[in-house]
Every structure is written in structure tokens, then in C-alpha cells.
Design brief:
CATH class: Alpha Beta
Number of helices: 8
Order of helices and strands: HEEHHHEHEHHEH
Strand order of the largest sheet: 1-3-2-4-5
Helix content: 25-40%
Radius of gyration: 18 Å
Distance between the termini: 23 Å
Number of domains: 1
Strand content: 5-15%
Number of strands: 5
Shape: globular
């Protein structure tokens, strides 16, 4: 049965990538969008473990800062090879009591490569501008994993998914206060389905560069434990 399910998901991935390539092609003819996308690079495939999916990891887009290394990215977050992103997520999974190699599906909201990391593009709000292109496909993709919790990586990918009035600062969900260093913290929180455009339970995690910040280092184990208790309780 598991082999059959994995084949069905593999077929789904092929279909999603095909649709993503079509979106990329149509975007390349858009007067506004075309100048921000790199059509020379193929859409990276989502990452799929070899067991039942218990966690969805949602990244931003595949555009790393080093332009030369972009063509080497074939799988979302480079999870098909050893590296810092894989090590980070493996630790998160271990804390949740699951296995990255068996229980994770990882994909990007924005599946195309941009001409440069989108946070460096200042003349337009790249995330809002491209959201309507990619959100419907992501919704179709995640429909295969009903009830599976989602973690987002970084604030930029989280912000466009939140409904109006919902806090957008990632650190707020991790209980930040200006006096956190002396133990004055707010309760940990997640994002409820009715507060985001995906209609899913979302646990926001920092992207890897933010792990250098002491606040996230201090709170990481506590937030993982909070997520485990909230989403993986027996």
C-alpha cells in the first residue's frame, strides 16, 4: 500500500512541476513579471520522503544568492543532498519525533527562480506581485496532505500568506519580548487555519540565516516541543 501511495505522490509531483513550468512560461510573457524571473533554470522538484507524510515544509523560492550555484538546485531546499538546510530540518524532525527521510514533503510557494534573491528586489513587492500566480498551485499541491501540519521557513514566505490583521513578525509566535534575555517571554503560538490563505495549521520557523540570532537559538527547542505537543500529540 505504501509503495502505491508513494507512486501516486510521485505522479502528483510530476504533474505539479509540469503546471509550474507552464506558469513560468506564461509569466515570461507578462509585461511586469518577465523582467524578474530567470527562465533559463528549471523548476526544482519538491522533496518527498519514502514513508507516510507527517510534515509539510514550505520554503520561499529557490533563488540562492550565489547565481552560479542555482543551476545545481534540482530539489527544493537542496534536500536531496547533504547541507546546512538538510541538517537543520533533520534536527527539527528529530525533535518532533519524525524522520526527514521518511515523513516530510517540502515545496516552495514561489517555484520559479528570480533574477536575484527577491528580498533584494526593491522596486516592487515581489511576493505580493507573484502570489496570485503561485498560490492556487500550492493549494492544489497541499490538498494531497489534508490535516498535515505545515512549517514555513522565514518571514518573507509567511507574510503574504497571512490574512489582514494577523501578526506578521515571526518572533511574535515564538514569544518575543524586549526582555526575553531575562526570561520575560510571551506564550508560544501557531497560526490557525482561519488566519491564513492556505487554511492550514502553520508553525512559523526562522529561515536558516536567522538561526544566528540568539533569541531563536534559545527558543528553538522550546518551540519544537510546543509544536510536537500541539500537532503530534497521540
Amino acid at each position: 500500500m505504501q509503495t502505491r501511495n508513494l507512486q501516486l505522490l510521485a505522479n502528483m509531483i510530476d504533474n505539479i512541476v509540469e503546471k509550474a513550468e507552464h506558469i513560468l512560461e506564461t509569466s515570461s510573457h507578462d509585461e511586469v513579471l518577465a523582467k524578474y524571473i530567470d527562465t533559463r533554470l528549471c523548476i526544482p522538484h519538491p522533496y518527498l520522503g519514502n514513508g507516510p507524510v507527517k510534515l509539510v515544509v514550505l520554503g520561499q523560492d529557490p533563488t540562492v544568492k550565489n547565481a552560479a550555484s542555482r543551476r545545481l538546485i534540482k530539489t527544493v531546499l537542496n534536500l536531496d543532498k547533504k547541507g546546512s538546510a538538510r541538517s537543520y530540518l533533520a534536527c527539527v524532525c528529530q525533535g518532533l519525533g519524525i524522520d526527514l527521510e521518511h515523513n516530510v514533503y517540502a515545496t516552495n510557494l514561489y517555484k520559479n527562480f528570480f533574477i536575484q534573491p527577491p528580498t533584494q528586489i526593491k522596486e516592487i513587492d515581489i511576493f505580493r506581485t507573484f502570489l496570485n500566480k503561485w498560490l492556487p498551485l500550492l493549494e492544489e499541491e497541499l490538498a494531497q496532505f489534508a490535516g498535515v501540519p505545515v512549517i514555513t521557513l522565514g518571514e518573507p514566505v509567511l507574510t503574504p500568506l497571512l490574512k489582514s490583521g494577523v501578526p506578521i513578525r515571526l518572533r511574535e509566535y515564538w514569544g518575543y519580548t524586549s526582555e526575553w534575555e531575562i526570561g520575560q517571554l510571551q506564550p508560544l503560538k501557531y497560526i490557525r487555519p482561519d488566519n491564513n490563505l492556505l487554511g492550514r495549521t502553520i508553525f512559523p520557523f526562522p529561515h536558516q540565516p536567522s538561526l544566528r540570532k540568539q533569541f531563536y537559538k534559545k527558543r528553538m527547542n522550546e518551540y519544537i516541543a510546543f509544536m510536537k505537543a500541539s500537532a503530534f500529540a497521540e
